[in-house]
Amino acid sequence: MNAVLEGVLADLQEESAYVESLLADLDEAGWRTATPAEGWDVATTVAHLLWTDESSVKAIAGTLLVNGEADKEPWDALVMDAFGDPTGFVDTAALTIAKTHTGTELLERWRASKAALAAALRTVPDGQKLMWFGPPMAPASMATARLMETWAHGLDVADAVGAAHSVTDRIRHVASIGFRTRNFAFAQNGLEAPAEPIRLELTLPSGAPLVFGPDDADWSGQTVTGSAYDFAALATQRVHRDDTDLVATGADAETWLTIAQAFAGPTGGGRAPKTASTEEGTA
């Protein structure tokens, strides 16, 4: 048993259960309620989550050897879809599934896809990297990415149905991805990644510290401090920089907070500040 993977899967299950609790009593009109993510309703959001789970299972099957051969055809077909429409194929898949399923069908399919993914991840040998649309990932990294998306899209669903956000120490997984994708965010925006490391000093909802970066007690260079929740929401582009408690020290740290992006793919539009008269979203 891989203890790290099991820990992430346990947190993913709890985060998914929270989102399920938001969906349980929705009628069909509720499923079609718009979220803050531009162009997406609740149904599209869940369709995206289940599609990504199912795609992950295909990636695992395409990586692992079964009777001497990997089952690559479903994964290869997905990759060809990505080549055909690199910036739109993910949205197209979610919108198509949402339009052809009722809310009840979407929930049932998502439950099945989550269970299938957890089971598939547990079959991956230690040290094996899994194919993906970007760089290959370890099983625990794939599970962490699923938790990040579940949490971020869960915020969208919560806003759509008027529920409280998920604010737990599970946010540490999202913050970790946000920290590790710093250079990616700079590259996505056509900027050179900072040569100097940036230290991230956050506080989890429980009050516990969460620190990434140089551990020198005398560190006095580029820093970002604040709540882990605000950093996670910013890195998933669910909040505007101006609406966080994050404090940047140094020009590179401040720039990072304006472009942070924990998710793969093109840069998103982010969210407008709460003081604005309109609010734009990113899926």
Q: Could you give a quick summary of the protein structure above?
A:
This protein has 283 residues and is α+β, with helices and mostly antiparallel strands. The chain is built from 11 helices and 4 strands; from the N terminus they run αααααααααβββαβα.
Give the ordered list of helices and strands.
HHHHHHHHHEEEHEH
Q: For the record, give the distance between the C-alpha atoms at the N and C termini, rounded to a whole number.
A: 35 Å
Task: Find the count of extended strands (DSSP E, 2+ residues).
Answer: 4
Q: Provide the gyration radius in Å.
A: 19 Å
In the predicted model, the low-confidence regions spanning at least 5 consecutive residues are 277-282
How are strands sequenced across the largest beta sheet? 2-1-3-4
* Strand-pairing-aware structural class: alpha+beta
Please report which band the strand proportion falls in: under 5%, 5-15%, 15-25%, 25-35%, 35-45% or over 45%: 5-15%
* Tally of individual helices: 11
Specify the overall morphology: globular
- Secondary structure: helix percent: 40-55%
Mean pLDDT: 91
Largest β-sheet summary: 4 strands, mixed
